[in-house]
Each structure stands twice: as structure tokens, then as C-alpha cells.
Amino acid sequence: MSSIVVVGGRRLTGEVRVGGAKNSALKLMAAALLAPGASTLTNVPAIADVDVMHELLAGLGAGAVRSDHALTIDASSLTSHEAPYEMVARMRASTSVLGSLVARLGRARVALPGGCNIGSRKIDMHIEGLRALGVHVDVAHGYIEAVAPDGLTGTVVPLDFPSVGATENLLMAGALARGRTVIENAAREPEIRDLIAFLETMGARIEGAGTSTVTIDGVESLHACEHEVVGDRIEAGTYVVAGALGKGPVTVRGFDPEHLDIVLAKLAAAGVDVDRAKDGVTISRSGPVQPVDVATLPYPGFPTDMQAQFMTLMAVADGSSVITENVFENRFMFADELSRMGADIRIDGHHALVRGVPQLSAAPVRCTDLRGGAALVLAGLVADGTTAVTDVHHIERGYEGFVQKLASLGAEIRTEAAPGAEE
Ligand code: UD1
Prior knowledge:
53% of the residues are buried. The mean pLDDT is 95. This protein has 14 helices and 24 strands. A hairpin with a 2-residue loop joins strand 8 and strand 9 (143-147). By secondary structure, it is an alpha/beta fold. The chain has helices at residues 22-31, 48-59, 85-90, 97-105, 124-132, 164-175, 190-201, 233-245, 261-269, 307-315, 333-340, 370-381, 393-396, 402-408, and strands spanning 2-7, 12-17, 38-42, 63-67, 70-74, 82-83, 107-111, 136-140, 143-147, 156-158, 180-184, 205-207, 213-217, 226-228, 247-253, 273-276, 280-284, 294-295, 320-324, 344-348, 351-355, 364-366, 386-390, 412-417. The structure holds uridine-diphosphate-N-acetylglucosamine. Residues 23, 26, 93, 119, 121-126, 161, 163-166, 187, 304-305, 327-328 line the site of uridine-diphosphate-N-acetylglucosamine.
């Protein structure tokens, strides 16, 4: 087990490039199961979650070959329809094979995800949606057993909440269903658009990408194809906040700034200069950070995946702000760690009152989850001394070359084997 050690106080300047979006790549890999043949994804990030999905696909009989950031997945002949508990327990997004397996093979057996570090994260909308499409779904002994021997039949599926995962599973299922599937109150995240673009290249017929109503006219079969994963807006947002903390100018490239619209608007309100280009932004700051309230919401609202990083910025603001988490029930866990670094945070339900302090103080801290972990490293960039962040496997799930990219901007940062580590 390694840790990330960061010495605070260095000014950050320069340019970093982000990779393909984790949350898109994982779903595109699942979608590749829909078509016999070999599909190639490019701009695939080299992160631990992609490795887990790679392993899961191999277990299903879909061999994948990686070359640099390209991944070719051969789903010609699938040999299993099961996502076992060991895989789902390692990565919740394993459940995204549910829709593609049942659509392609007429059956799927997927372990129920348990709780995770950011809340209970139910899966009821995925199941109800598939049932509406005529899939017989049983939930027993910790597994979802989905069977549709005669295929799926399109219908209108209204979602109670624009769930990203449910929208994705239903898109994949609807692509091969008989007739028309309409997903109402669909999620609109850029990663959903990316999945729709991939499915369309495979031959799917879909209307309404990027809107709340997505209409899918099912086709008999899909074909393998090539697709480039959309740039990772959350990885980008993390370096954007690093740039705001480290004063910049920092340029972050490889993503569409429109995908980070509200985050960039909030940063501007916080006194950060934001200069947008076509494929990135340049961030700089000369004055103090101003306090700004944010509330997380489904896209195009403020992303819950940027909440922790923004809280770190607000922790050193010149005043108080309120951060409201509306998407996940338990996403303030990292705030206790941030408080150990001198942040003044009071949590009340899904609100956090953050009173800015002039300086954070370096301390040993522990990652509680992926984005919270990244936010602690960001805090270390502006703390007075040396911060050691442990349990960094959370960060490795979703950031390729996190330490190297921050170091390239001038951060004094390194990875260290934890004292007493056995491997
Ligand atoms: C995805 C992203 C995650 C991001 C989240 C919201 C991946 C791998 N993960 O997660 O990084 O933070 O979108 O943008 O893409 N819910 C239900 N029933 C359901 C499904 C969801 O109650 O059937 C609830 C969840 O418990 C949660 C909320 O809806 O409180 C949002 O979940 P959802 O949008 O589905 O997020 P994920 O797809 O799990």
C-alpha cells in the first residue's frame, strides 16, 4: 500500500492533458458486448477500474487487448452471462453489463452491489426498467437473475430520478429490443451522450441524445466499430481546482469545457480567472478565493463528483460557504479528514457549512473514496508542510498518472511505499 506525500505551498503552472472519461470508458466496454466482432475504443484511460472491467469482460468470454490507450474487445462468442460477486464488490460499475448481457444473450446473472463509501446506491430503477421491457427479473441470494428468452420489447420507461446507471443499462437493453423504447427523465451526462454515439456507430437508432427523453428504435443486431472515449470532465475539473489553489496559470486540455460549465462558472464567482478554449481551459488566480455556495444535481447541475474538490477550495476561501449534496446520501466522509488538516466544516444532513481558514495544516490523512481522496491531495498542495495521504488505491481507480501530472505543474509530490508495507 503506497501513500502520496505532498509538500504544500508551491505555485502551480503549466499544462496537463486529461484522458478519456472513466465513467464513459467503463460503459462503452460493457456496450461492446452487444455486437459480435471486435470493437476498438481509443482514449481509454489506464486506471484500475478499467482493469477490473477488462477482467470482467474476459470472464464473460470477451477477450480484450490493450495497446497504449486503445482497447480492442472481441465479443464474437460470449461464454458466460455472469458478473460474479467478486467483481461487483471490487467495482460497482460492473452492474453496467446487466443491460447488454440480457439484450445480447437473453439472460444475465449479476451480483447485487452492496453499499459503497458514498452511500447505499440502489439499483431498483435498473431492475424495474428491465422488467418494463419484458425481462423476467428475480433478485435472490445476492444476485439479479434476468431472463428474456424471447427477447425484449420496447415500451415507455419513466425514471423516478435521472439515474446515470439506469439510463445506460436501459439504453443498451433498448438498442436490441423489439420496437420503440422511450426513456423518460433520462440522465443527460456527457458520458450518456458518448454511449449513445457509440451505440449509433454500432447501428443503433436513437433520438434525443443529451435530452431528458431518449427514444430508441430497436434493431435486430449491432455491429462492432471503433470509437474515441470522450475527455474526462471530472479529471479535468480536479486539475482546474488544483490550478485555482496553486494560482496558475494552469492549462488543462483534452476535454470540452462545456461539460464543466457550471463548475467553471462557480470558479469564476470564486474569483478565479477562467479562459476557455475549444478543448480545454486556462486557470489563474491573483486574489483571495471568494466563498461560493454549491448544490450538487444531475447534469447539467453541479457534479457530485466535483463536490469534494470544490470543498477543498472553499476550505481556504475568504468567508463561509454552504455545500449541499443532493445526489448521494453519504458523500461528506472525506470532510472529516479535511477537518484534520485544519478545515472548519460543520455537517448537517446533506449540507456542509465551510468556514474558510487562511491556511490548512499538513497532517496524515486517509482517502475515503475516489474523489474525496483526490480532494485531500489538493488540500495538501496548499497546506503548511508535508501531508501524507494513505489508502491511495481509491485515487488509482480513476486517475491516470495523478502524481506525475501534478508534479509536472510544479507540485512537490511523490508516491511512497507505506512504512511497514508488506508488498
Ligand atoms: C454514476 C457515476 C458516478 C456519479 C453518478 C452521478 C459511474 C461509474 N459512476 O454513478 O461517478 O457520481 O453517476 O453523476 O458512471 N439510485 C436509486 N435507484 C437506482 C439507481 C440510482 O435510488 O436504481 C440513486 C442512487 O442511490 C444515487 C442516485 O440515484 O443516490 C444517483 O445514482 P446514479 O445516477 O445511478 O449514479 P451511478 O450510475 O451509480
